[in-house]
Write the structure tokens for this entry.
Amino acid sequence: MSATGIASAPAVERQALAVLAGTIADDLGIEVSFHDPDGAVLVGPADRYDESLLRLTRKAAETGRDAAEPTDGGLLAAWPIRRRTRTVLVAAARLPADGARAGRLLVASVGESIRARVALTQAHSETHALSAALSQSFEEVSLLHGLGEVLCVTQPVGELLQRACQELRACLAAEAVGAYLPAVEGMPGTTVVAGTLPMASSSLPPLVQHVNDGLGAEHSLIINNHCQDDPDLAGLSIAIERLVLVPLPLREGVNGAMVAVNRREAEFGSPDAKLVRSVAGSCAIFVENHRLYQDLQQLMLDLVRALVSSIDAKDPYTCGHSERVAITCREVARRMSLPDDQVEAIYLAGLLHDIGKIGTPEHILLKTGKLDPEERRIINQHPVVGARILSGVKRLQHIREAVLYHHERLDGSGYPESLRGDGIPTFARIVGLADAFDAMTSNRPYRPMLPLEYVVREIERNVGRQFDVQVVDALFAIGPARLIQQFVDRPSSVCAELIHP
């Protein structure tokens, strides 16, 4: 017999029946007991009833009709309470009745009152249960909707799992909710915890492994409300009492898991496990999409680097220039506290800023003397050519303006459109300074690299005319010498091959 419900009773809890018995006693002056169809007492003073009561309640249950028999000072009566065609409960009481006719009328009247009250109590119980279920469903939908709103493949996996665990812990009223992802190719291992685990966080992976090992292929979750009966779980912590665990499937058959531990108010049940499974399923899809997105991003970067390297390799003097500009742009953007997605975008812009030189003749790129007007006109077209190339790549539209305007100057003397001041996009200002910095600090066909002190003075002299002051401040805060040393220590692979064939 469940402690919280009555076996086969129509959604009426033992506590509700006890309250009902008290109400009947107050209203009708009759002490009523409630029994299951086998006669066992559910509510009432069982020691006050003898074998005759057990026989009478069983008779009422079997026949589905009211039963009564004389007893000292009145009647012993039993009333079957049916649901559809089945008796689910029997009420019994001693009635102070004299005479057969009066007794029959009293049995019928009291029975009608008891059944009406039981039906009302049942309706209240079902309404309460439905309300609780709707409330839980609303919390579940709200949780999943909230997670859905923040799911973004550019978001770090740990941040999403942390939020999911926090929301799940609040919804379940659990002591802690944790998520564990083992390391797989292309993705590091991740462990996050919301709340306080009753053990060291480092014990979460072996706990997940132990429980996962106990899951057969046909099982998708496990609920254990008696963890101390499992020697392995008890060995991890004597404070683990209850848990529900759902695997987080990764590629190649590797599983992580999401686990809720020690619900404070009650045992974990199927609705709790269902919620954990729903959240874990959403997280698993996100993790896989994140991995695919990272693979796609890496593929795109590899293709961009290959294309840029083919351009840089045309000129051994400027080989690696685009990679160095890209790194400088990224460091400057970070120093300016730009969002992570913009930091990565400005890195791409730096890589591709000279993509338009793919159509520039090599005799112009490698010329050691001063360019004539026609050669200058051709070289000045490379930002426009680059922007035209990127216009056909939807994924790169956010950096197109940086490529097009990276040779514009704040005083309007730049090209190709002679933009001024705030009319020049921030990305273009960053790329423009990084491009000029690398040009001055590297060897060119027409001159050797310039001394760093001279480069710094030249940049300072052109603040407000060519360069944006905030971008310059960020570059100087990084340390120009440190940037140059980084490039000396780590030359690009293409340049290394050219220098050491």
DSSP finds 18 helices and ten strands in the chain.
